[in-house]
Specification:
2 domains; three-stranded mixed sheet; GrpE_head; three-stranded antiparallel sheet; alpha+beta; protein homodimerization activity; Nucleotide Exchange Factor Grpe, Chain A, domain 2; 3 helices
Length: about 190
C-alpha cells in the first residue's frame, strides 16, 4: 500500500477511535447522572415513608392519650354522680335534725291525763313514721351510750369520773348524733368517763 493510503487508513482509525470515545463519553454522561437521580428518588421515597410512619405513630399516640383521658373523665363523672345521688338528702336531713330533737323532747314529757296520753301516742306515731322514712333515705343514729369515745363520731362536752367504767367510755348522751351512710351529719354530744 502506498503511504497515502496508510495515512488515510490511520486517520479513519483515529476518527473511529475519537467517535467511539465521544459516544462512550455521551453514554457515561447520560447514564451517570440518572443513576444518582434514581437513588435520590428512592431515598426521598424512603424519607417520605419514614416521616409518614412517624406522623401516624404520633397521631395514634395522641388518639390513645385522648381516649384514656376521656375514659378517666367518664369514670370521674360517674363517681361524682354516684356520690351526689348517695348524699343528695344530706342538706334536707341536716335541716330536719332540730325538728327530730324537738319531737324527742316532747316525747320525754310525762303526764297522767287521758288527753296527754292520746296526744303522746300520736306524737310517738309521727316520730316513728318520720324516723322510718329518714332511715330509708340513709339516716343512721350514732350509737354512743357506753361505747368507747370516738372523736370522729362523738363530741365530748363534759367529763365525769366513774370508777365502775373504763376510762374513755361514754357515760351519757346529751344529744343524739346522726350519719348519712358513712358521712357524719352531726356528732353525738356526750359525757365521757375520765
Amino acid at each position: 500500500m502506498s503511504e497515502k493510503h496508510e495515512e488515510q487508513a490511520f486517520e479513519k482509525t483515529d476518527q473511529t477511535d475519537e467517535s467511539t470515545e465521544a459516544v462512550e463519553q455521551d453514554i457515561t454522561e447520560t447514564v451517570a447522572p440518572e443513576a444518582p437521580v434514581e437513588a435520590t428518588e428512592e431515598d426521598e421515597t424512603t424519607d417520605a415513608l419514614t416521616e409518614t410512619k412517624k406522623s401516624l405513630e404520633a397521631a395514634e399516640e395522641k388518639y390513645l392519650r385522648l381516649y384514656a383521658e376521656f375514659e378517666n373523665y367518664k369514670k370521674r363523672t360517674r363517681a361524682e354522680l354516684d356520690t351526689e345521688r348517695t348524699y343528695r338528702a344530706q342538706s334536707v336531713l341536716r335541716d330536719i335534725l332540730p325538728a327530730i330533737d324537738n319531737i324527742e323532747r316532747a316525747l320525754a314529757q310525762k303526764g297522767e291525763s287521758e288527753e296527754f296520753k292520746s296526744l303522746h301516742k300520736g306524737v310517738e306515731m309521727v316520730y316513728e313514721s318520720l324516723l322510718s322514712s329518714l332511715k330509708d333515705n340513709g339516716l343512721e343514729v350514732i350509737e354512743a351510750l357506753y361505747q368507747p369515745f370516738d372523736p370522729n363520731l362523738h363530741q365530748a362536752v363534759m367529763q365525769e369520773h366513774d370508777e365502775s367504767k373504763d376510762s374513755g367510755i361514754v357515760l351519757d348522751e346529751l344529744q343524739k348524733g346522726y350519719k348519712l351512710k358513712e358521712r357524719v351529719l352531726r356528732p353525738s354530744m356526750v359525757k365521757v368517763n375520765e
